[in-house]
Amino acid sequence: MLSTAPDAPTDVSAMTATDLPANLVSTLPGQYYTDPAIFWLEQTRVFESVRFCPVRSSERHIGEFHDWVTQRLAD
């Protein structure tokens, strides 16, 4: 597996850098929601490296404590 996407930004602080005061910044610029390199970074650094709880126990049959269910996120 590659450790970085070909065009991925290397300075994550650049993603949130802005000249606006904090009370006027509501979200990241649109490119961070649509850029394939950012998507790749999220997939490899967040979703593939950290365990999440994607379902409630009431939504699927989970019998005992420490039972688990495998889900695919953001295919």
Describe the 3D structure.
This protein is mainly alpha-helical and about 80 residues long. Helix content is about 20%, strand content about 0%. The longest helix has 12 residues, at about 35-45.
Task: Summarize the topology.
Blueprint: H1 31-34, H2 36-47
- Terminal CA distance: 17 Å
Q: How many helical stretches?
A: 2
- How many strand units? 0
Question: In terms of per-residue confidence, which ranges show pLDDT below 50 for 5 or more consecutive residues?
Answer: none
Name a few traits of the molecule.
single chain; 75 residues; mainly alpha; 21% helix; 0% strand; elongated
Short structural summary:
The protein has 75 residues and is mainly alpha-helical. It contains two helices and no strands.
